Amino acid sequence: MPTKPAYAELTQHYTRLHRFNHLAAMVGWDRSAMMPPKGNDARSAAEAELNALIHRNRTDPRLGDWISRAEDEDLDSIERANLREIRRDWRQANALPESLVEAKTLAEARCEHAWRAQRQANDWEGFLPNFRAVLDLARQEAQLLADDTGLSRYDALMDRYEPGVRAADIDRIFGDVVGWLPGLIARVRDKQANEPVTAPVGPFPIEHQRALSKTVMTRLGFDFDAGRLDQSTHPFSGGVPEDVRITTRYREDDFLQSLMGTIHETGHARFEQNLPREWLGKPIGLARSYGIHESQSLSFEMQLARSSAFAGLLSPLLSEHLGPQPAFEPANLARLLTRVRPGLIRVDADEVTYPAHVILRYEIERPLIEGEIEAEDIPDLWDRKMFEMLGLDTRGNFRDGCMQDVHWPLGLFAYFPSYTLGAMYAAQWFASMRKTSPDLDQQIADGRLSAVFDWLQTHIWSQASRWETPELVRRTSGSDLDPAHFRRHLEARYL
Amino acid sequence: MPTKPAYAELTQHYTRLHRFNHLAAMVGWDRSAMMPPKGNDARSAAEAELNALIHRNRTDPRLGDWISRAEDEDLDSIERANLREIRRDWRQANALPESLVEAKTLAEARCEHAWRAQRQANDWEGFLPNFRAVLDLARQEAQLLADDTGLSRYDALMDRYEPGVRAADIDRIFGDVVGWLPGLIARVRDKQANEPVTAPVGPFPIEHQRALSKTVMTRLGFDFDAGRLDQSTHPFSGGVPEDVRITTRYREDDFLQSLMGTIHETGHARFEQNLPREWLGKPIGLARSYGIHESQSLSFEMQLARSSAFAGLLSPLLSEHLGPQPAFEPANLARLLTRVRPGLIRVDADEVTYPAHVILRYEIERPLIEGEIEAEDIPDLWDRKMFEMLGLDTRGNFRDGCMQDVHWPLGLFAYFPSYTLGAMYAAQWFASMRKTSPDLDQQIADGRLSAVFDWLQTHIWSQASRWETPELVRRTSGSDLDPAHFRRHLEARYL
After folding, report:
1. Fewest CB atoms within 10 Å of the CB: A20, A103, A296, B137?
2. In what order do the strands lie in the sheet containing B227-231?
3. Contact A42 B226 (CB under 8 A)
4. Active site residue A71
5. Rounded average pLDDT over B62-83
6. Mean pLDDT of B280-309
7. What are the backbone angles phi and psi of residue B244, rounded to the nearest 5°?
8. pLDDT band at B447 (very low <50, low <70, confident <90, very high)
9. From the CB of residue B485, how many other CB atoms can be counted at a distance below 10 Å?
């Protein structure tokens, strides 16, 4: 056995970190899904202590030396990929001086807290000073990361969410979409104007919705011996691969929100539940980037669950759990699940108009981070782009315009592209599946979902962080990310 | 402001420990109440990492010096009491060499694991070798603690659970009880033989039992904004004072088990929820000993909830949640809740026979730890004492005899007395309450429970670990623990 003392030290160190992250994931889930309100202060203090411990471990001064020495050790290709991920984590944890991290945390907390009321009050002028402080620190952060990596500022931020993906790639991909999306939306709207849709009639008791969600999750392969479904104000997927915790929220008048949300989170959950067991505890064993993760939730929610084929499977389950009604008839259900209507709010957007929301944000935040525009330029840009892409007027409506998302107040720049990259990856995965299974829709209609799950297992879940994102895309689907797959998917489904 | 640098270091260190203990409490609760089975291995590893971290902090080599120096600093009486508790924690964490701790953990895990099947199989001979190893290590541990404190072996162990209480106290108290308990049991049995009792008729749907439990908990002052009720195989009270997690288990055919269990845990919970906020995070802010904690659960379950007065409050709640039936009539309910029947199993025992089970165990484990008897002497002693005190024959029945409890296989010696000390403290508290509120039973019957809660708040909850146990007892009730209160309580209720 070749000796790899530095690599062994790293492995031991990251195993410990993995266990601390396990604790953080669990108490974080508990805070959102279980904790009563008066527990908040003590919990915040306990979580802060744990986060400080995790940060100390990620910035342990011995790590730099271990990483350098491990580079010269006799590692196999898996160990080398793991070392690459260790280096990425170490670089991100160490790139920023403590003082900048603290200033960012404070500025973001202040901005986000004030934003909650300012958004309600449509108070852009009140928001601007806090936001300028957040932006200024984000630029400093981006510059330090850029100095450290040789990337541009925006690329350096994006590398956290999509390792290996650059703004030049995004420009190419989103530039293509901008060319055809507005026209596509108009044609879909024309077509749907003449299609009658019957709306479901509630109320739908929460207990029945919960049972329906669990039935559908089981149908989609969620392992309830290795996870749970609970409720929280903001649905999320958390926990650890051996014990995945997903949440949803219920409205008595609308079961589709919780159901489609649950299906979305089930896609995230199956990625986690099926990460390779032999890599758990190592950075290589973590799920690949945000965009790849989103490609799993959208494979489940968009590619699979909003298809006509799946509507036939869903229909009897709805009748069984919620009582039969005309709206649950498969053809009507499929129309319900694919209704397109441009709107102001990203999180309420349908599959077709959603990319417009993301592209708009990317086209503003990239020059914002690079220093080409300033915070006060945002509203005009927002108004113009929203009108160009979705034909909507947002002038003076900051609340439902540039102040609608929590991301920028929290200093989360370069995150938005992952949402639409995820949708595009998912379309590319399903195009690949159709090559090997030309009758995929028939299989889905028959309830034989293994063609989908097996492909995802082989090409995505089992790969974890084995490859950087662009390399993973090439290996799984034979080519770089190509927005033509997404376009063909939308045209096939909506025209 | 006087400078107290060493005390300040200790405060900071124990605040950090408190936060780690918060995390441990929460993931421990989660493991028992929420975690799906496949999460177990990863959770065990994460908890072990956290426990190791906590142990490192409790044994930090700087602590001894800080404690010595703090003794000479200008501390007020509260700080001095806090320092006393810090010293106790530090001494307990450091008394044992790492190798003994590891050997104990291994031997106890092995013994407990094998015991589960051996108990079912009534296999005393198979159990004995594992148990001898556990006992041998417990004696070594007790000897080291004794050397460190100047106490006897058994006293040194008991000081962990009941600070300041000694075997000489227990001998005096239990010796008194042995003198009158068998006679009392016989008289109660005679009396109850002629009292008809109507049994409740099930099934009682779990959802209705859950709603009943929550109603009763609210009636008893449990703050659901600072805690939760959930389910687990073995009910317990956990969490942290700001966020207390209690659990119960439900049987469709018997609602009294879950209801009385919930009331019991609610007593523990109110102690925790009402610990003084200004001491939280300091050892002085922790709930006093196991016996004092049990005095709260038994104040709720035994003193309050099994009283005739309380049966009148409970009766309409049962009818409301479970549907009316003759068994819920107040007088019948009171008889149901005070039925006495000697049995082999401690955890199933009623209020009157329970002390016999505890005294029997104490009379065996004290000489066992002191080396006056050996493991193989246990069955004969058990048989003899069980016959003397409860008139039951346990010969050859190890399963329902000396192998019934998990405590000894786990090396938990000197813990049993706390159960009955708790019952006796509770009786002494209620005797004190009756002195200031001679109409206490009428107040309870009227649903005015504040006389009980206010007394407990003032005398117990607000005191936390301000005093060692015997001092607390004297201050709250004007005298040392006196079993005459317990005797009078039993005679008043059962004769």
Report:
1. A103
2. B227-231, B243-248, B237-240
3. no
4. no
5. 97
6. 97
7. -90, 130
8. very high
9. 20
User: What average pLDDT does range A443-463 have in this prediction?
Assistant: 97
Q: Which of A155, A140, A60 is nearest to A100 (CA)?
A: A140
Q: Chain A neighbours among B 277-306 (CB < 8 Å)?
A: 280
Contact between B495 and B180 under an 8 Å Cβ cutoff? The reply is no
* Helix (H/G/I), strand (E/B), else coil: A345: coil
The pLDDT of residue A187 is above 70: yes
* Chain B residues 320-349 with CB within 8 Å of chain A: none
- Chain A residues whose beta carbon lies within 8 Å of the beta carbon of residue B228: 34, 36
- What stretches of B202-268 adopt beta strand conformation (E)? 227-231, 237-240, 243-248
Mean pLDDT of A18-45: 95
Q: What are phi and psi of A228, to 5 degrees?
A: -145, 160
Chain A residues with CB under 8 Å of B23 CB are 23, 27, 46, 49-50
Give the whole-angstrom CA distance, residue B403 versus residue B400: 7
Residue A1 in this model has a pLDDT that exceeds 70:
no
The amino acid occupying position B296 is Q
Instruction: Categorise residue A317: left if φ over 0, alpha if ψ from -120 to 50, beta otherwise.
Output: alpha
CB of A50 closer than 8 Å to CB of A27:
yes
Q: Which residues contact A494 (CB under 8 A, 6 or more apart)?
A: A184, A188, A191, A338, A340, A352
CB distance from B214 to chain A under 8 Å?
Answer: no
pLDDT > 60? residue A2: no
Tokens of residue B147, six digits: 């050397």
- The span from the CA of A59 to the CA of A66, in Å, is 12
A456-487 confidence digits (pLDDT tens): 999 999 999 999 999 999 999 999 999 999 99
CATH architecture of B103-495: Orthogonal Bundle (1.10)
Report yes or no: A43 at the B interface, CB cutoff 8 Å.
yes
Residue B41's closest chain A neighbor by CA? A242
Structure confidence by residue, pLDDT tens digits, A147-164: 988 999 999 999 999 989
- Cβ distance of B240 and A42 shorter than 8 Å: yes
Q: What is the CATH number of domain A105-495?
A: 1.10.1370.30
Whether B234 has a pLDDT exceeding 90, the answer reads no
Do the chains contact at A223 and B38, CB–CB below 8 Å?
A: yes
ipTM: 0.92
**Nearest neighbour of A35 by CB, restricted to B16, B27, B243:** B243
User: Which segment of A225-239, B94-108, B367-381, B406-420 scores lowest on mean pLDDT?
Assistant: B94-108
Model confidence pLDDT, tens digit, residues A338-357 = 999 999 999 999 999 999 99
Tell me the H-state helices in B274-403.
290-298, 308-322, 330-336, 354-370, 378-390
Give the pLDDT band of residue B92 (cuts 50, 70, 90). confident
Chain B residues touching A45 at Cβ < 8 A: 19, 22
CB contact under 8 A, A22 and B41: no
- Choice among B265, B272, B294, B301 that is catalytic: B265
Task: Tell me whether residues B46 and A23 touch, CB distance under 8 A.
Answer: yes
User: If you search the block for the tokens 């995150």, which residue do you land on?
Assistant: A415
Contact state of A34 with B227 under an 8 Å Cβ cutoff: no
3 state DSSP class of A413: coil
Position B283 pLDDT exceeds 70: yes
Nearest chain A Cα distance for residue B49, angstroms: 7
Q: Where are the domains positioned within chain A?
A: 1-94, 105-495
CB pairs under 8 A between A and B: 98
